[in-house]
Every structure is written in C-alpha cells, then in structure tokens.
Amino acid sequence: MPIGKLMERQKETLVQEALKGKHRDLAGWWNYLAITLAVGTALYHIYTAYFGAPFALLFRNIHWMLIASLIFIYFPALKKSPRDKPTVLDIGCVLISIALGMYVILNYTAIAGRAGSPVTADIVLGAVLVLIVMEAGRRTVGWPIVVIAILFLCYAYYGQAMPGLLLHRGYSIARIFPFLYLTDAGIFGIPLGVSSRFILLFVIFGAFLEKAGAGIFFRDLSLALTGRYVGGPGKAAILFSGFIGSITGSSTANVVTTGTFTIPLMKKLGYSPEFAGGVEADASTGGQILPPVMGAAAFVMAEYIGVPYVTVMVAAIVPAFLYFITSFFMVHYRALRDNLLPVPKADLPRLSTVLKDGFYYFTPLIILIVLLVMRFSPSRAVFWALLSTIALSWIKTDTRMGPKEIIEALHSGVLKALEVVAACAVAGIIIGMVTMTGLGLKFSTLIELLAGGNLMAGLFYTLVASLILGMGVPTTAKYIILATLVAPALVALGAPLLAAHLFILYFGTDADITPPVGLAAYAAAGLAGAHPMKTAIEAFKMGITAYIVPFAFILGPALLLQGPLYEIFLACATALLACAGLGAAMQGFFVRRMPLWHRGLLLIGSVMLMETSMLGDLIGFLLVGGIFFIEYLAEKVVKKKMAA
Q1: Domain span at residue 183?
Q2: Is residue 179 part of a domain?
Q3: Residue 3 burial (C-beta neighbours within 10 Å; 0-12, 13-18, 19+)
Q4: Lowest mean pLDDT, pick from 133-142, 229-238, 353-362
Q5: Model pLDDT for residues 24-48, shown as the tens digit of each residue
Q6: How many CB atoms within 10 Å of residue 338?
C-alpha cells in the first residue's frame, strides 16, 4: 500500500477512536461488576488522600492491581472482540493482575527482607507483570510507547553488544524482572506513584465538576465574555477548551469533549472547517500547560525536581497566559481579515445571569489553589475541593448530586484515568531500565557532546527528541522519559532546573499539534469534517508561541516570575507585544492585509522581543512597532483615497 494512503488510513483510525472511544460499552451484570470495581477504586484513593496511603510499593501495587483489572475489562484486545463483555483472555488477564498484586501484599515483609536476592517466583512473576503492563499499554494508548519499552528492555539485556558510549555489561532476566516488579525504581516507581497519589484524584475531581454542572457554566461564561466581540466564537472556544483541558490532562480527550460544541458554532458563523478545528486543537492542547491543574504531567514534574507543586504552578502562569493571548490575537485578526461575524446577540447568554446562576463554581478551584499555596499536599487539597463540589451541587435542584450522581461521577473519573495510568506503568519499565543501566547519565553525556557545550544546540536536540517522542506517546509518559534522559543534560549545559523541565513539558505537549502527526488536530479535523493535515497546520500556527516561549524562559527566567520585579515587568510587557506581532504575522492581517515582507519582519521582531536581552528588546520593538505604524498609516491613506 502506498505510504500516503497508509498515513491517511492511520489518521482516519485515530480520529474514529477519539470520537467513539476505545473502551467497551458493557452490558448486564458485567456492567454492574465493572461499575462496582471502579467506584471502589475511586473511594479507596479518596480515602487514602485524607487518611494517608500505605508504604509506597504496597500502595502502588494495590493501585495498579485495581486499575489493570478495569483496563482488561473495559478495553478489548482486538477490534473484533466483543464490545459488551470481556472475553476469556480478558478475564485471565484480570486474574493474573490480581494474583500479581496479592503476591506483593501477602509477602511484603519477606520481599523487603530478601531485597537483592530474588527467588524463582520473583523472576517469573516479574516477567509476567512486564507482559501484563505492556498489554495494558497496547490496549489503551497504542503500540508506540510499548515498542519504546521493548527497546529499553533489549538495551538492558544486550548491553555488552552496544556500541561506544552505550556499552554496558548487560543484565540477566534474573536481575531485570525482579527489579521492575519488587522495587520502587521500576514499574512501581515515580510515574505510578504520581498517578496513585495525584493523577487519578484530579481526574475524578474533574468528573465531579462536570457532573455538578461546571462544564455548562464555563461554556456559557466563555460565550458571555467573548461572544459579542470580533472573533467571539473562536475566543469562546479558547476559554472553554483551555479551562477544561487543564483538568482532563489529554489534548485529544478535551477536543472530543468540548469540540462537539465549539467547532459547530465556529463553522456556523463562517469559520472554515480547518481553522475551527485548529482553534479547538490549539486551545485543548494549551490546557495541559494552564494552571492550576496543568493536566497531570506537572505533578510528576514537582516530584522529579523536588519542589512543591505550587512552585511549578506559579512558574507556568506567564507562559500559559502568553500561549492563550496569542491564540486570542490570532482569532481576532483572522476574524477581521475574513469579515467573520460574532455570535448573534440573541444567542448569547447574559453575563450577569451566568455569574448569578453559577459564580459558586469558582469555589472548588479557589479552595484548591488556596490549599496548595498553604502547602497542603495536592491529594489533600483535591480531597477538600472534591467535597466542596458535592456540597455546591445542592445549590440548584437540577445539579444536586445524590448517591446515583456520585456513583456516576466516580465511575466516569476512573474510566477517564485508565489510559494515563497505563502509560505511567509502561513508562516505569523505561525509567527502570534507564536507572539500572545508567543510560540517563550516558544519554545526557551524549547530548552534551553533540551540543559541544552550547546550550542552544542542546535545546534544539531536546526539541527534536520531544516532538518525535510525542508522536503517539501521552504527554505524561513522554515528559517522564525525557525528564530522565534529557533534562540532566540541559541543566549541565546551564539551563535552570525548573526551566529545563518546563521546556521538556512544553515541547512534549506541542507534539499534539505538530504536523505531520498531531493527534489533537486529527481528532478536531474529524469533528470539523476538515482535512487533517490542513487542520494540523492551522493548529501549529495558532500555537506558535509554545515553540518560542520555552527558549525565552530558558535564557531569561523572568517569564517564570523569577528575578527582580523590573525584569519581570519588562519581560512580560515585551512578550505581550510579541504575542500581538505573532498573531498578526501568522494571520497576515493587522488593520489591513499585509504584504509578505511585513509579515516576515513582524515575525523576526516578535521573536526578538521574546528574547530577554535589552538589545533584542530594542530591535524587536523597532521592528514590530515600525511595521504596526506603517500598516496603520497605509490604511489611513487608503481610507482617504476612498473617501475622496
């Protein structure tokens, strides 16, 4: 089959999976059993959020045992497998997952006592666990991350055959499998630790917000705030999708959740299908870098670099604002260029009415932020935010959450988290092999050698690795891998620790809107009835700031709100002007359609403004300000001629 047709078929498959969902729609007593297990899983994690969890290895085993059982019940092995009930193979995988977990739970003391001296059962069961984890990953997030895990296992085993810097003595299966199974540096390492303590709870919290009516409130609020202005439908989509995307932690999931409302609205008012899909994909992807929740990867980051989560959250505020304000400028200039209509006034909700009816939906988020600032653990903070959501749902009769609604929210939250947890488990295999072989240090050394001690070269290699790895690997998993392999090299080359990790997170996230494989853009194209590649290009243009800002905050931490106040103010002011310039350059319009050379100078000037030196700011200001002034004068001249 020609490669072009093969890529088109793959895109179509990805879109269909995003729209329909990959998990089963269970029927009969299997449905009740799965709901009971999911609700029990949610309640157990909520209980541990308040009362505390058992020892790390024990807790993560219980977490995976429960999640793996649900994965094999809900996710079929093959496309032709039954969609209403699990098969014998699925049930066998469930029983094996339970047996693997119970082995650790029942023999925890003995396992701890013989650390480093595994028995035969440890080796065999460790091998079985690796197979189970990879099968769970294949069913949920697909082959790419599984293939990467297999390559790392081969690297650990065949180390003595590796060339040059990658050479090591090699490890036997008697070392590899018990290490992955019975230590907190393998499958049950930091990734599953974060998913068990934070990720699952935050996804459940998002499900409770949705069930309580917060999704409808934020949708109406976005329309009320922006709908009547130029580019109103697109701006409303950016606000709505950005907020929801922060909680869901998945660009593609957010696209198919919010895009069903935003994309038809934009198309109805004149936006092309490709641009409507691009706006939705851009906003949904940006949600993963938007505080306070920032998807899930930010919790992993805080754990990796050993800082409170609130430190990551505060540092991400300005870059996230620049991302979304650029998207606003893009929509604004595009609407002016193409004479696109705002939302008709009759179709808009009144802002005062929206706020009056739902202002209290801000309360759980305020509680969450305040508790995080007060140095509560994220799990304890989300516990109280979740309880407040239930209480607030009783303000209005039609949103009250009784036992039935609470069960539905618990079930929905766990179901949405299965793919992320599976990705974290597979990432544990990769991180375990990196730790065992010392590859992290070697890879960092390799990056340093290739970069020749030059930080910018190191950033470029990291950018390429992030975008390539992001093709099919979930954001959290690709951040974990790159944080282990690449971040130490960036720090060694002179990048600040927090900035280096945010750089990796940004470009891992960007992969979802980067052609040729931008999964969020493909999902949006499916909803919009648009060409996938053209939609990805529009999304790429919309999110252009995310490809520039990371370099800016590596070179100057003022954009991360670090440093003297005057430097922070100057950096933010010049970056804001740069966002306006980028929006105009990408859309080819300021007060009129611009010639190509004006757009080129605007782009150069905007990049210079993002750069933090005084000379760069001066050159950028002259270029951007000069082009804007010339465009304004030219438009005045045209209007005078037309009037005459």
Answers
A1: 24-193
A2: yes
A3: exposed
A4: 229-238
A5: 899 999 999 999 999 999 999 999 9
A6: 14
